[in-house]
User: Fold this.
Amino acid sequence: MSTVTLAIKPDPSHVRLVRLVAVALGRLNGIGEDILDDIRLATGEACGRAVAAHLHHGLTRPVEVELRCGGGLDIDVHDFVPLEQASGQSAVDVLREDTLEQEATDTAAEAGLPEAIGLIEGISDKVTVNTGRDGTTVSMRWAGT
Amino acid sequence: MELSLNHRKEGDRTVLEVGGEVDVYTAPKLREKLVELVGEGNYQIVVDMTKVEFLDSTGLGVLVGGLKRVRAHNGTLQVVCTQERLLKIFRITGLTKVFALHGSVAEAVAEN
Assistant:
């Protein structure tokens, strides 16, 4: 299994770097081009969300990304914005609320922006979202060819 | 690849040709351009995305914002998009029901 770990400055210009690495790793491991398009998009969405979360909350520490390839591709994107584990809510619901809170202050919010997590769910084989005191991890998986 | 934005008039439409990648970093520039065009009185806009290589939800949000802006002036915002990888994003997000999607600028301009 190949593992690549990235720590990117919370700067929107750096999200593209993670997309490039994800696609390169997938291609290196024989994943088909149509799936690579999904990987590119989902990785960008997850990293963009994490970077936006850091910027919104004034965090300067890097967003962390771990990419593991071997019989498929797994990508974890972690931000360090602590979220309350609201009673009775799933982690995905908490993430959706945080996204909407950000959108309320983002210019794109005026447009009723589709949630990034919804898009990721549509183009990956599996998505899990875990939130806690140390932040949120969006884990995505593609089974490969 | 960075974002390229060029616009021209075709009949009563303003065609905004977008090239490169529209993501969380470059989408604000697209938004700025749409705001500028509407501010200058261009309310019938065709966004030509045939040269767009990447589009994410931030870009979609900017397009929706542009649509709302022109609609405030009874205008229209049409999208020209032929790449399946981009059309897929419109479908997954349900925005095929929101945007008039066309296969060419000529087709978009010809629509009443």
